[in-house]
Amino acid sequence: xxxxxxxxxxMKGSTKSPPGVSLSEIGxxxxxxxxxxxxxxxMNYNILDETDLVMIIGSFGASAVLLYGAIKSPLAQPRxxxxxxxxxxxxxxxxxxxxxxxxxxxxxVSVATxxxxxxxxxxxxxxxxxxxxxxxxxxDKIHDLGYLYAVIPVGVGAxxxxxxxxxxxxxxxxxxxPEFWF
Length: 182
Fold this sequence. Notes:
Shape: flat
Strand content: under 5%
Mean pLDDT: 95
Helix content: 55-70%
Order of helices and strands: HHHHHHHH
Structural class: mainly alpha
Number of domains: 1
């Protein structure tokens, strides 16, 4: 049996904060994020603006942090980006349809299930949890997409951000992306 003191001591942390990054790393992260989000946002606001489709979702902001700012992280790799987002989108839409009259339940079950499925499929990508949640709490425009939400904006948008990550993250000699594909 763990004592309360032992339990609370776990919350102290066990390592020191990682060192800061170079100005070059900061700059390349900024450039990648700018072009990655720009590509998705330009399509959303200039090409799809007159349609019922949407291209940009909030979870892409979190993906940008991983794809352009933490490129060596296993959570930032192509398999995780695409698989995590698409699987989570499908799960979110499914639970919105099943429990949509009880949004609190649809929200909780979709995020929890998305995490479990991402773990099981080795596609853990933290923004995927937000992608599942957006499928539940999003606007009518998102809800009207149904399972198309997993294709556009989620799949196509994640693919666009991946292409930018491949192009930008491999420009400087100090950066290499991806670490793995599958």
